[in-house]
Specification:
globular, alpha+beta, single chain
């Protein structure tokens, strides 16, 4: 027995389009992070040899470094499986972030935080999928203390997003 398909209601169409439009600014922010991250990495890889450093200030160098692991080179000396493991984590995180952006579209600081984290995660995911490692190039150091692990624009966006997320949560808790 054939059933007659019903047309979607105007409210269902409006709801879907408003959901997509409420995601647009946050996806735009993530895209800008990805763009800045990838342009900077392409520039560094075309300008530097692996391991080459260029001092900029007394506490900052540009350096071309490859990180097959995660933050602080976690699991970098494994056999290669970590590439797929961290790629899967990034894909899962991005899916969850999109869900949260849809659910909490009106919470501006929360969504800024999520968009920055998503852009950073996707920027590093691109590196993992294309090169098998993440390209890092920002190297801060202090004499007598040593070098902080090299990082990139994507890592910076993730860190700023995490700080905004914590700040937003503390602000929300203090309101209650």
């Amino acid at each position: 027995m054939a059933t007659k398909k019903s047309k979607p209601s105007v409210s269902a169409i409006t709801s879907r389009s408003s959901s997509a439009s409420s995601l647009t600014p946050w996806l735009g922010i993530a895209f800008i992070v990805i763009l800045l991250d990838q342009i900077s990495k392409i520039t560094i890889t075309r300008t530097f040899m692996h391991g080459e450093e260029k001092p900029i200030t007394s506490f900052f160098n540009l350096v071309l470094a490859y990180n097959p692991g995660a933050a602080f080179s976690f699991l970098s000396n494994q056999g290669g499986w970590q590439r797929y493991f961290f790629a899967a984590i990034a894909i899962g995180a991005v899916c969850f972030i999109i869900y949260l952006l849809r659910k909490h579209a009106g919470q501006r600081m929360f969504c800024w935080a999520l968009a920055l984290i998503m852009g950073g995660a996707l920027g590093n995911l691109i590196d993992r999928l294309v090169y098998g490692h993440v390209i890092d190039f920002l190297d801060f150091h202090l004499s007598g203390v040593g070098h902080f692990p090299a990082f990139n624009i994507a890592d910076t966006a993730i860190t700023i997003g995490a700080i905004l997320f914590i700040f937003d949560e503390l602000r929300r808790v203090n309101k209650h």
